[in-house]
Amino acid sequence: MAIVLYSKRGQKRVVGFKPGALNIVTGESQTGKSALVAIADYCLGRDEIMVPIGREFATVAWYGALWQLHGGRAFVGRPAPAPGRASSTVAMLEFGSNLDVPEFEDLEPNTDSTSLRQQLSRRIGIEEHLAEPPPGSLRRAFEVGVGQAALLCLQGQDEIDSSQALFHRAGDRAIADSIRDAFPYFLGAVPQDQAVKHAQLRDARRALSRLEAQVRAAELRSANLDAELRALLNEASSVGLVGESTLPDDRAAMILLLQQARVRPIAEPAPLPDTAQQDRRMGLERRSRELHRLLKRVMSDRALLLDQQDGQSGYRSAIELQVGRLQSLGLLDLLPPDAEADEHSASEQASICPACSNSLVDGRDRTNVDLGHSLRSLRSQLGDLRAAPPARRGALERLEAEASRLRDEISAVDGALEGLLNSARINEDVPVSAVDFTRGRIDASLARIEALDEREMIILRSRLLDAERRVQALEAELNDDQDREELTSRLLAISRDMTSYARYLGLEHSSDNVRLELSRLTVVADTEEGPAPLFRIGSGANWVGYHLVTHLALHKYFVRQSRPLPRFLILDQPSQAYYPSAARAGAQTRDADPEAVKRLFKLIFDVVESLEGRLQVIVIDHAEEPEEWFERSVVHNWRDGEKLIPVGWLEEVADESSS
User: Fold this and answer.
1) Which residues, at least 6 apart from 501, have a Cβ–Cβ distance to it below 8 Å?
2) Per residue in 563-590, pLDDT tens?
3) Residues 632/636/642/643 CA torsion (nearest 10 deg)
4) Full-model pTM
5) What are the b/e assignments for 560-595, b being 16+ CB within 10 Å?
6) For site-directed labelling of 367, which of 170, 214, 316, 466 has its Cα 20 to 30 A away?
């Protein structure tokens, strides 16, 4: 990778890095080192560029980055935003196997930031994948791309020592949500074709809903078909196309009769005489009134039965309560089964108890005998009530069947009456016979009825069953529980490396298990006292350390599992927590912890080396270590006046302004 800057006068500044290795950019403060993070972010498609405002960066006309891809290279150029603005959507993108940094004269916009992100995403292997927010969320699904991947590859100076935000720009809630939703894909915890399957599932559910609506509508039309046919036959009978004595009840016979009536020849169809038509209409009206009266009576009888049932239910409950109370007194054994003597016989056998002066019957207390009789009487009534419900249910069923039959007949009579009135009205308004009008209605009705053919219903139900099976199969493939299991398994693998790295750095709670918690996008140490999230672990050294171990463990996983993310990680000022503010200008003091800083850099170096050239880490820092591996990793040392923006660019601007 290389970062490229072009001045407004066409000069070029190339900051190159070694691929697949640790690259350290060290130097003094205010040399522009931290701007490398913002420029890399801008050249990955971000609309804003967060470089400092000042004379130095005002000299820049274009920012660029040369990315190494599998089997080639990509050059991204982004013009500096217009004066007074911090964002731009204009971009230049070129691909080539031996592509090199272009000259200033060759820079020309040919795309925008959205297309830039899409093309880079495809080039690094990110498939079309929609990240689905959790159920119930108001957020929309979005297509995962290099925009989300870049958030896992950058750590700014004010982010790497944060106790609240673990990832680049995660302090923005929308950005944090997008990281959280895209993480399962980057970890490989969801199928590669999940986006396609989600689209198929949405289409299958829509198709299922349409078929369910079609089946419901067809079933409803079929349920009303018999009444419609009877009404049509009555209308045909009223104009002489069907004889009154030939009206069947069978659906197939009614359809056949209507088909015959539709083509039956009539020599000279003429309207019925006024008297006959009037008699026919009055007869239908009388029949309609009679049917409504019968239906009202049936519904009244049904309501009466239901009221009786409610009342009897309350009475039965009261009787059962009394029986329970009497049984609780043990009165069942006080009266023998054959004790059927009435009050008169009991009174003849009565005597007086010499102790309490109470009446006795055959040596037993008269009160107990009466209670026993009451118990048997209540039981007899309760038995009668329990025997009644089956008969009442049968009566209710008969009444409901009769009401349904009456409603169908009312529909048929009303339909015939309506047809008779329509034919009379048409005969008054236009010169068309009632027979032709009825034939037209028969044609239209039979066309609808043919659409309700039983074979069509069978086909609809078969298609509905297939659609249900299709939805169930797709839902099984997109099983949320299985996805959660896959995600948990991968996070556990990453957790092992995080814990090992944390122990190497001697971080607080590193003796316990350390893990990444996606729900809050933070690091959690599982202690004996309970989980300790990053924001509850003190000191900046711990915050920096846990940021570092998390990103190193993640990128090690991404590399080993060949996940489609950029193969670089940029860390800005990871040693800042180990030096006082004075030392950040480049001079280390006795307050520093050189051993801790050395362990930090050595961990980065060892992880990069273990991946054998498949990960590039760029560290921007002030530190200098007298170690061979450290010195070998330093690619830029910006001291003694060397900066990101060459001094000559500022001098030329000053010369122009003075002249």
Assistant:
1) 548, 549, 552, 553, 603, 607
2) 999 999 999 999 988 875 444 444 444 4
3) -160
4) 0.63
5) eeebbbbbbbbbbbbbbbbbeeebbebebeeebeee
6) 316
